[in-house]
Amino acid sequence: MDLASVLFKLNSHTPKILGSERFSKYAVLLPLLQKEDGIHVLFEVRSLELRRQPGEICFPGGRIDAQDIDERDAAIRETVEELGINKQDITDVFPLDYMISPFGMILYPYVGYINNPEKIQPSPAEVGEIFTVPLSFLIHNEPEIYRVSLKAEPEENFPFELIPGGEKYNWRARGMDEYFYRYGGKTIWGLTARILAHFIELIS
């Protein structure tokens, strides 16, 4: 390969997250709604009939499909399907920082306002129940944060002979913070709590 070909390839390349084509891509919506005592954040409890993470607390959302225009469109579509509302009932949709999980997933979170919350009719196939938390509570109550260590475990046939130190190689310690919010006997944690904490930090 000559230099001109190499430079042409480099000039034609648009940078992205390395390996992102193999990542699962999801979009979620953090729904805001107005109640008598102020703005609330809406949460779902996943149906116990679901195979993945039954009974866990989350925001509306799911995998980005080929027919979705973009990540924002996917977040709105999933919210419409799960809460049983019209697309027109969701306004003022803004992006938050997207997240890359250590488990091969890119998550695109958005915030949106639900105009007519009385119209909400959750899909029983996906949603066990919904509840709301006052935004004022979340602003004045910081999350609990706990550190989780991720241990490196090379597979059996790992070629230790090719790396300095061999089997005694000093793997770099890795870890992640898990966030927890407690409200009314319910625990909001995991990626949902991390998105929530980012949103609260952003508006505060």
Structural features, described:
This protein has 204 residues and is an alpha+beta fold. It has a domain at 21-141 and 181-201: Nucleoside Triphosphate Pyrophosphohydrolase (Alpha-Beta Complex). The protein contains four helices and eleven strands, in the order H-E-E-E-E-H-E-E-E-E-H-E-E-E-H. The protein has helices spanning 3-12, 71-83, 135-140, 190-203; strands at residues 24-35, 38-46, 57-58, 61-63, 90-95, 99-101, 105-114, 127-134, 144-150, 174-183, 186-189. The strands form two sheets. Strands 1, 2, 3, 4, 5, 6, 7 and 8 form an eight-stranded mixed beta sheet that branches. It has a three-stranded antiparallel beta sheet with strand order 9-10-11. Strand 6 (99-101) and strand 7 form a beta hairpin. The protein is globular and about 65 Å long. The mean pLDDT is 91.
